[in-house]
Amino acid sequence: MHRLALIGLCLTLLLASPAFTVGTMSLLVDGQPVEAEVHTLNGAAMVPFKPLLPACGVSAYWVPDSQAISAYNAEHSLYLVMGQNSGLADGYQVPVDPPAQFIDGNPCLPLRLIVKTFQFQSMYDAGGSTGTW
Known about the structure:
The protein is mainly beta. It is built from two helices and 14 strands, in the order E-E-E-E-E-H-E-E-E-E-E-E-E-H-E-E.
């Protein structure tokens, strides 16, 4: 099972929405760094689907015709259409909040949904505090 850790400090940017922050964080998968900018939207961590999912052993594809992300491994699958409040996880409809969306031109997904769907063990450390999912 992959271990996913976010380590770092979020810097709040004054953008159109006061609930939007951009993180200067390091992503670690099985102890190895993965370069990806982490965003926070209304309290939810949003991550670009690549390079994170492939680093976790998950095949991930952009589906341009439906503006969707399809991701799967041997045990689990996830299909999310950009901007939709629901998606498919392992063939079942699930709520997606916030929905998958483009941030700085990159398709981003809520990290919590990735962790839950693919049953990753994860840790989060922001400014010295640690939380586990």
